[in-house]
Specification:
This is Ribulose-phosphate 3-epimerase. With about 220 residues, the chain is an alpha/beta fold. About 30% of the residues lie in helices and about 20% in strands. The protein has one domain (about 5-220): TIM Barrel, CATH 3.20.20.70. The protein is globular, with a radius of gyration of 16 Å. The chain binds 5-O-phosphono-D-xylulose.
Protein backbone atom coordinates (compact mmCIF):
# COMPACT_ATOMS: atom_id res chain seq x y z
CA UNK A 1 0.00 0.00 0.00
CA UNK A 2 1.55 3.28 -1.15
CA UNK A 3 1.57 6.13 1.41
CA UNK A 4 1.40 9.85 0.70
CA UNK A 5 2.16 11.75 3.90
CA UNK A 6 1.56 15.52 3.79
CA UNK A 7 4.12 17.41 5.86
CA UNK A 8 2.23 19.50 8.40
CA UNK A 9 5.09 21.97 8.78
CA UNK A 10 4.13 23.33 5.35
CA UNK A 11 0.50 23.69 6.47
CA UNK A 12 -1.38 26.61 7.96
CA UNK A 13 0.52 26.92 11.24
CA UNK A 14 -1.62 29.78 12.54
CA UNK A 15 -4.74 27.65 12.17
CA UNK A 16 -3.51 24.18 13.00
CA UNK A 17 -6.81 22.93 14.43
CA UNK A 18 -8.78 23.96 11.36
CA UNK A 19 -6.01 22.60 9.14
CA UNK A 20 -6.18 19.21 10.84
CA UNK A 21 -9.96 19.15 10.59
CA UNK A 22 -9.77 19.91 6.87
CA UNK A 23 -7.39 16.97 6.38
CA UNK A 24 -9.66 14.52 8.23
CA UNK A 25 -9.72 11.09 6.58
CA UNK A 26 -6.24 11.26 5.11
CA UNK A 27 -4.12 8.14 5.49
CA UNK A 28 -1.10 9.75 7.17
CA UNK A 29 0.41 13.03 8.33
CA UNK A 30 4.12 13.81 8.59
CA UNK A 31 5.61 15.70 11.52
CA UNK A 32 9.11 17.08 11.10
CA UNK A 33 10.62 17.36 14.59
CA UNK A 34 13.47 19.84 14.06
CA UNK A 35 15.63 20.96 16.97
CA UNK A 36 17.55 23.89 15.50
CA UNK A 37 20.78 21.89 15.83
CA UNK A 38 20.70 18.91 13.49
CA UNK A 39 18.89 21.24 11.08
CA UNK A 40 18.60 25.00 11.30
CA UNK A 41 14.86 25.13 11.78
CA UNK A 42 12.90 24.55 14.97
CA UNK A 43 9.49 23.01 14.36
CA UNK A 44 7.15 21.07 16.61
CA UNK A 45 7.88 20.40 20.28
CA UNK A 46 6.20 17.59 22.21
CA UNK A 47 3.39 19.87 23.47
CA UNK A 48 2.37 20.61 19.91
CA UNK A 49 2.69 16.94 18.91
CA UNK A 50 0.42 16.03 21.86
CA UNK A 51 -2.11 18.68 20.86
CA UNK A 52 -2.05 17.53 17.21
CA UNK A 53 -2.47 13.88 18.24
CA UNK A 54 -5.38 14.85 20.47
CA UNK A 55 -7.12 16.74 17.68
CA UNK A 56 -6.89 14.27 14.82
CA UNK A 57 -7.37 10.58 14.10
CA UNK A 58 -4.94 10.73 11.16
CA UNK A 59 -1.98 8.40 11.86
CA UNK A 60 1.12 10.49 12.48
CA UNK A 61 4.67 9.78 11.38
CA UNK A 62 7.51 11.56 13.13
CA UNK A 63 10.74 12.44 11.33
CA UNK A 64 13.33 13.25 13.96
CA UNK A 65 15.74 15.80 12.52
CA UNK A 66 17.43 16.27 15.88
CA UNK A 67 20.81 15.69 17.50
CA UNK A 68 19.57 13.28 20.18
CA UNK A 69 16.75 11.21 18.68
CA UNK A 70 16.57 8.69 21.54
CA UNK A 71 15.45 11.48 23.90
CA UNK A 72 12.19 11.86 21.95
CA UNK A 73 11.07 8.25 21.56
CA UNK A 74 9.17 7.79 24.82
CA UNK A 75 7.28 11.10 24.54
CA UNK A 76 6.34 10.50 20.90
CA UNK A 77 5.06 7.01 21.64
CA UNK A 78 3.11 8.32 24.63
CA UNK A 79 1.36 10.69 22.18
CA UNK A 80 0.33 7.66 20.13
CA UNK A 81 2.76 8.21 17.25
CA UNK A 82 3.18 4.80 15.66
CA UNK A 83 5.71 5.57 12.93
CA UNK A 84 9.04 7.07 13.96
CA UNK A 85 12.32 7.54 12.18
CA UNK A 86 15.55 9.29 13.03
CA UNK A 87 18.59 10.29 11.06
CA UNK A 88 21.38 7.76 10.93
CA UNK A 89 23.80 10.73 10.87
CA UNK A 90 22.66 11.65 14.41
CA UNK A 91 22.83 8.14 15.86
CA UNK A 92 26.05 6.57 17.14
CA UNK A 93 24.12 3.31 17.64
CA UNK A 94 21.15 3.19 15.25
CA UNK A 95 20.04 -0.27 16.40
CA UNK A 96 19.52 1.04 19.94
CA UNK A 97 17.21 3.77 18.62
CA UNK A 98 15.25 1.21 16.59
CA UNK A 99 14.83 -1.14 19.53
CA UNK A 100 13.83 1.72 21.85
CA UNK A 101 11.16 2.85 19.37
CA UNK A 102 9.87 -0.72 19.09
CA UNK A 103 9.91 -1.25 22.87
CA UNK A 104 7.94 1.94 23.44
CA UNK A 105 5.20 0.83 21.08
CA UNK A 106 6.08 2.22 17.65
CA UNK A 107 4.60 0.00 14.93
CA UNK A 108 6.95 1.27 12.20
CA UNK A 109 10.55 2.04 13.13
CA UNK A 110 12.91 3.54 10.62
CA UNK A 111 16.02 5.44 9.72
CA UNK A 112 16.34 8.56 7.59
CA UNK A 113 19.32 9.42 5.41
CA UNK A 114 20.48 12.80 4.23
CA UNK A 115 21.48 13.16 0.60
CA UNK A 116 25.19 12.74 1.25
CA UNK A 117 24.78 9.45 3.13
CA UNK A 118 25.12 6.26 1.08
CA UNK A 119 22.36 3.66 1.26
CA UNK A 120 24.86 1.03 2.40
CA UNK A 121 24.93 2.51 5.95
CA UNK A 122 21.61 0.67 6.36
CA UNK A 123 23.15 -2.76 5.81
CA UNK A 124 23.75 -3.65 9.49
CA UNK A 125 20.13 -2.79 10.39
CA UNK A 126 18.07 -4.46 7.66
CA UNK A 127 16.40 -6.86 10.08
CA UNK A 128 15.12 -3.96 12.23
CA UNK A 129 13.88 -1.58 9.55
CA UNK A 130 10.18 -1.18 8.81
CA UNK A 131 10.87 1.83 6.62
CA UNK A 132 13.55 4.17 5.39
CA UNK A 133 13.28 7.84 4.48
CA UNK A 134 15.65 9.06 1.80
CA UNK A 135 15.71 12.82 2.13
CA UNK A 136 15.87 14.17 -1.40
CA UNK A 137 16.78 17.81 -0.70
CA UNK A 138 19.48 19.30 1.50
CA UNK A 139 17.43 19.14 4.70
CA UNK A 140 18.91 22.27 6.20
CA UNK A 141 17.52 24.57 3.54
CA UNK A 142 13.85 24.62 2.71
CA UNK A 143 12.74 25.53 -0.77
CA UNK A 144 15.54 23.62 -2.48
CA UNK A 145 14.72 21.33 -5.41
CA UNK A 146 14.49 17.55 -5.54
CA UNK A 147 17.85 15.91 -6.32
CA UNK A 148 17.23 12.99 -8.66
CA UNK A 149 20.55 11.36 -7.68
CA UNK A 150 18.69 10.07 -4.62
CA UNK A 151 16.99 7.52 -6.89
CA UNK A 152 20.30 5.71 -7.37
CA UNK A 153 20.30 5.23 -3.58
CA UNK A 154 16.74 3.89 -3.76
CA UNK A 155 17.80 1.34 -6.38
CA UNK A 156 20.87 0.35 -4.35
CA UNK A 157 18.80 -0.08 -1.18
CA UNK A 158 16.18 -2.22 -2.92
CA UNK A 159 18.90 -4.76 -3.65
CA UNK A 160 19.51 -5.45 0.05
CA UNK A 161 16.51 -4.27 2.10
CA UNK A 162 13.86 -6.82 3.03
CA UNK A 163 10.91 -6.67 0.58
CA UNK A 164 8.59 -5.54 3.38
CA UNK A 165 10.78 -2.55 4.32
CA UNK A 166 9.14 0.55 2.87
CA UNK A 167 11.21 3.15 1.06
CA UNK A 168 10.00 6.74 1.33
CA UNK A 169 11.23 9.88 -0.41
CA UNK A 170 11.04 13.24 1.36
CA UNK A 171 11.70 16.63 -0.16
CA UNK A 172 10.95 18.55 -3.32
CA UNK A 173 8.38 16.10 -4.66
CA UNK A 174 6.02 17.66 -7.21
CA UNK A 175 3.98 16.68 -10.24
CA UNK A 176 6.95 17.08 -12.59
CA UNK A 177 9.18 14.57 -10.81
CA UNK A 178 6.45 12.27 -9.45
CA UNK A 179 6.60 9.74 -12.29
CA UNK A 180 10.37 9.14 -12.09
CA UNK A 181 10.11 8.75 -8.30
CA UNK A 182 7.18 6.33 -8.37
CA UNK A 183 8.72 4.23 -11.13
CA UNK A 184 11.94 3.92 -9.12
CA UNK A 185 9.85 1.68 -6.88
CA UNK A 186 9.31 3.74 -3.73
CA UNK A 187 6.51 2.97 -1.27
CA UNK A 188 5.85 6.38 0.24
CA UNK A 189 6.23 10.10 -0.27
CA UNK A 190 6.43 13.00 2.15
CA UNK A 191 5.07 16.11 0.47
CA UNK A 192 4.97 19.64 1.87
CA UNK A 193 4.77 22.52 -0.57
CA UNK A 194 3.13 20.68 -3.46
CA UNK A 195 0.16 19.96 -1.25
CA UNK A 196 -0.05 22.92 1.11
CA UNK A 197 0.79 25.69 -1.32
CA UNK A 198 -2.05 24.54 -3.58
CA UNK A 199 -5.28 26.54 -3.35
CA UNK A 200 -7.03 23.39 -2.07
CA UNK A 201 -4.55 21.10 -0.24
CA UNK A 202 -6.99 18.20 0.06
CA UNK A 203 -7.72 18.29 -3.67
CA UNK A 204 -3.95 18.50 -4.36
CA UNK A 205 -3.39 15.45 -2.15
CA UNK A 206 -6.06 13.43 -4.00
CA UNK A 207 -4.70 14.48 -7.38
CA UNK A 208 -1.20 13.33 -6.36
CA UNK A 209 -2.62 10.03 -5.12
CA UNK A 210 -4.38 9.50 -8.44
CA UNK A 211 -1.17 10.22 -10.36
CA UNK A 212 0.81 7.84 -8.12
CA UNK A 213 -1.70 5.09 -8.88
CA UNK A 214 -1.56 5.84 -12.61
CA UNK A 215 2.26 5.70 -12.70
CA UNK A 216 2.37 2.57 -10.54
CA UNK A 217 -0.19 0.83 -12.80
CA UNK A 218 1.89 1.65 -15.88
CA UNK A 219 4.83 -0.15 -14.28
CA UNK A 220 2.96 -3.44 -13.81
O1 LIG B 1 11.81 18.14 6.05
C1 LIG B 1 12.04 18.19 4.88
C2 LIG B 1 13.30 17.61 4.41
O2 LIG B 1 14.04 17.20 5.50
C3 LIG B 1 11.10 18.78 3.89
O3 LIG B 1 11.56 18.47 2.67
C4 LIG B 1 9.63 18.43 4.02
O4 LIG B 1 9.37 17.32 4.82
C5 LIG B 1 8.98 18.24 2.68
O5 LIG B 1 8.72 19.45 2.13
P1 LIG B 1 8.66 19.75 0.57
O6 LIG B 1 10.08 19.74 0.05
O7 LIG B 1 7.81 18.68 -0.07
O8 LIG B 1 8.03 21.09 0.51
Amino acid sequence: MFTVSPSLLSGDLLNLGAQLDALRGLENLHLDIDDGNFVRGISFGMDIVRAVAGRTDIPLDAHLEVLNPCDYVEALCACGVKRICAHVEALPYPSLFLSAARKNGARYCGLALNLKTPAEVLLPYVDQLDYVIFVSVEADYDGLPFRSGVLAKVRAAKAFLRPETEIWIDGGVNESNLQEIVTAGVDGLVIGRSIFQAPNPVAAYHRIRRLVQEYADKEV
